[in-house]
């Protein structure tokens, strides 16, 4: 039998029953998982639920993975675990739906009701029509993927993070980008558009073709990642196939290409800032994912760039 002492990492009204000791009859430290510890803790402390509990070794800050066993995380007989209340939780699916809904509301408002924002009507140029269609299609695709494609290793995240995560899309990709590209500066009568390549039908079609390739390629990589993880599991495997032959995160690369097209079409400072901010964050995530793949699969993981072929 395994007996695991558990205390609270800091005082909280939800942990009045702590410290305590959880018993797992007939099991060894090689069999008991962190998820089972959370379940047992919730059973003895009704105010706790597994989704909002973080478990760490006593004296350490790193939270332990639900699928890890006690022995695999270094717990030994007599060792103590600490539980942290992570606060109110929200599902990852809901988080992404909220994030992407912002641009889907802001862009139509500024495009269809320009007088409310610019004090005048705007005769939309072909460029503005293309960009509007591309932005709307992109975020509708994102919503579709959030609901029907993505499978997450963690079921929930702290609710407070929603506001932080939404800033990039609601403010940078929503308000700032929409206000810039639907303004009179880009209208059909603007000197910035008339007589330039930005009203050339061949140029616009070529840009749209590259953008469409990037969007479909991004979707393809997401489907490959989805098929690696059976529904209801946290299974991890090495991805192969379209884009993954050279990159750990080809989905990020195709995302960058799609927005790079919008930047090239418009020359908008807001579009460039949105792309640069997004590229920076995707770079941080790509480094982390690349490192985790190499750590988990060792020599079995192929040599790949992180997210940009021959560059990074």
From TrEMBL:
GO BP, one annotated term: very long-chain fatty acid biosynthetic process
Compartment(s): Membrane
Coiled coil: none
UniProt topology in membrane: Multi-pass membrane protein
Pfam family, one: Steroid_dh
Residue intervals passing through the bilayer: 161-182, 240-262, 268-287
Official protein name in the record: 3-oxo-5-alpha-steroid 4-dehydrogenase-domain-containing protein
